[in-house]
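Support case: user asked for a sample of complex input and structure output to validate their parser. Sending the pair below.
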Amino acid sequence: MNIIFRKISNTKINYIITVVFILTTAVSIIGCATDKANEQPISNNKADPYENFNRKMFAFNSSVDTHVAKPISDSYKSVTPEFVQTGVANFFNNLKNINVIINDVLQAKFTQSAHDTGRIALNTTLGIGGLFDVAKHAGLEQNEEDFDQTLAVWGVSPGSYLVLPFFGPSTTRGVHGAIFDAATSPTTYTMIGVPINMVSVVNTRANADGSLKFINEAALDPYVFTRESFMQWRNNLATDGKTDSANNNIDELDIESLDDEKTSALKEDGAVAKKSNESNSGISLEPETK
Amino acid sequence: MILKKIQLVLFYIFCLAVTNTTLAQTDSAATAKQVVEKFQSELITVMKNGKQLGYAGRYKNLTQPVSDSHDLTKIARIIVGKEWEKLSETQQQKLVDAIIRLSIASYAHNFKDFSGESFIFDSEEETTRGGFVVHSHLVIPDDKPVKFDYMLKEKGNSWRIINIIANGVSDLALKRSEYTTILQREGFDSLVAKINERIDAYSKL
């Protein structure tokens, strides 16, 4: 699941102008959409005040994906050998490491910046311009850093959740981060930037197939599923996986309040006993297959 | 003769008592880590036989391990948050049933085969509110490992999983957002219908 967001992030980096344009358009559309918002339930999620607009963009992106991106990606996969797809992915990952190193330094991760510098040096030389990920075999794993994470480390809050047309999930902080990331991407300043980015987009979509399939299979509400997993994933990256799971306030407080409940409509013990019996009998716990 | 019989009966009762006490101690002594490791081990066993078992077989074999290691009633209550109290007892029971079936179906679908995966225990820590978090990761050959953090709370004299955080994404928080949104926007019947659709889809994929 995380892969898709990472890939989408890579794509964003290379499109500064489009992002700015889309942001401007998005804000205008939000203004228009607000008038119609009264027809729909107002979002209860504080992180997603533009839910009505975002849902429309999510539907739009899904439609673009179904009718344009997926067919192109499927064709690309059918005519491109897997090792070529891997090579293309490695090439763009290697380019991205310039940005990773800059953000390592901005976050005062100097040891990691040395690690990532070694990574890019190895892959650019021995890995033939980044087509082969030889650094991985030397124990230098790919790190994920971008300016959105740097802003988080500096104490900037993520702001509102946004779904950008064509680019998918982001936040107001993430949009600013993407602008800086684009400014540090070498492809932004080259004449061949557009075709290179097109290949990147197609390859990205091809690699994200499994993740999209997972969302389609698991989600009851794909919009909320995507939003929540994206926000949590970004938070996990920003904190380098040190999210305080042991003292996860929301979960713990909820659980405690349930423990303290004196008047629950369902008597838990009875329910569990019933469940246990049903489980043993194999009646109600069987899958509902047709 | 009668005395001998009484002695035998007393000995039998003593043996029975000792056995029961030992079993009870073993049960109560199962730590949070042991609960998680037992479940992971059962999951790997099902994965190893995944292809032969098929979906229905995996579902059947995982029913007891999931029910024994997860507190699915509590999970259901947390998932719908404040909406829980607005539901009738019948609706609550219906929701718990649906979430139990969805949890097992989800495991049966997503852990369908084996290609050398293994769970590695990293550490465990007690939470400020008396729970435990067991940190582990799933090693997948030729791929990045997936971090699994299990959050457990005590239920009776054993520990039960109430949340799984995979690579920083909390299953409980994810489901709570989804389910409360559907409850508020579309109502209870729609939520249960969507859960049943997922379960049905898992069985056919």
